[in-house]
Amino acid sequence: MKRYHTSIADFLPTINFCLPKALEIPYHVYSMKELKTYFIRTYGCQMNELDTEIMAGQLQKKGLVPVGDEEAADVLIFNTCSIRDLAERKVMGKLGRMGRGQKRHGIIGVTGCMAMAKKDSLFRKFPHLDFVLGTNNITDLDVILDEVLYTQSQVHKTEDRFEENLDYLAAKRDNKIKAYVSIIRGCDKFCTYCVVPYTRGQEVSRPPESIVEECKKLVDDGYKEITLLGQNVNSYGKDKPEWGCLFHDLLHKLDSIAGMERVRFMTSHPIDITVELMQAIRDLPSLCEFVHFPIQAGSSRILKKMHRIYTKEQYLEKVALLRQIVPNVSLGTDIIVGFPTETDSEFQETYDVMKEIRYSLAFIYAYSPRKGTPAMRWKDDIPEEVKQERLQRLLELQEQVSNEERSQMIGSTVEVLVERWNKDGKTLKGRTRCWKKVIFEGDASLIGSLQQVTVHSFGHETLIGTLATKPLIIHK
Ligand code: SAH
Ligand code: SF4
Ligand code: F3S
Asked: Total structural domains in the chain?
């Protein structure tokens, strides 16, 4: 694995120095030794959460320790998301307020997708910012910190291409039961609304040996559930045909690790799901029977405009085949309402398709135009009230479907990975293999174990049950 141990002369050509910090801002000269604490605030998806854990690992290797307070941290990092306007506005607002308020003595940096979308233009808007580090360069975090200290300038590094050089094994995870593992970065799909291909770059698969090594270590460390991450995990290995290891091959390798209890993955682009993958879900004991399978819209015209490269009919065929091969599979989805030119009847197609498929989980979003994406060419012509009305209708439908599903599960016994105490402090909380939340009474010794729980009722987004001594009917 390539690491970035270079002299300053080595990295000078690749790191870009910017404006000196505004003169009125007091600059305290630190050395790396004096940087003692850090705080990373994470926005966005699971990939960002994992990147935060990897950056935390790098900082801890350097001797820094986490603190619970942004203000007190010597190094404050905002690991950002650009997926929708609101995600960016949250961070921009926060950075703006920090610049106007009391000057901090520490170093402030922006990482993640907004770093890629805005690059060094962030320095113009936020003169108190010290560094901008892109999603493909997080391995350079320690170099960047040295550079900020050494030059007392704003530094940015935002390369478009990712090189597989992350120190995954050093990642610092707060959760001791469930872990994220990155298997492929980037996205080559270029859906017309989406910033990810620009903020995360081209697809680059991680070598299977490295993934297996990390998963073995996680199992040895007592982890019970591993979620494999990628913008499109189904593309795994296609960029490296010489490895002879596609996604389903990788799943077989992971399933054969002794002690591996549960494996999940997200996200799957519908076009790339294969029969071999469906069979792997059916056959591999560790592989959970839940597939997040975003449809985005129910109208083939809108899907074409989104460049999703499948029609409604093709999507429905894939779902039918998946359900035939894995009858107890649960499905999740993402949906965008109010995409440019979406008519009422096209929205109704989305509603109808959701009603037909009956997802267990749906993330529903109002379309948000993103700079640099092809969809920006089209007028954002659906009024905000209409978007919100459509969103509301789908949320209500999903709530109804999920409640019906929960009520059908009453009386069944489910396998629950017990994760923690529920907010009430009296019951325990965990998830089924199909990602359903379950609460039940039990003691702390059960946390981190797999238990059989019989469902007797349900509440908002939750199944409620009691510990079963022995499994009765095993339900998804
Ligand atoms: N790689 C995943 C999605 C990552 S982004 C996949 O393709 O399934 C997560 C979700 O955000 C997307 O599925 C989409 O529903 C939503 N999204 C992306 N860009 C958006 C935009 N411009 N406006 C609204 N929602 C968007
Ligand atoms: Fe975005 Fe489409 Fe890639 Fe998903 S598949 S990350 S929605 S471009
Ligand atoms: Fe956001 Fe980037 Fe993830 S845009 S959703 S943090 S890949």
From this structure: 4
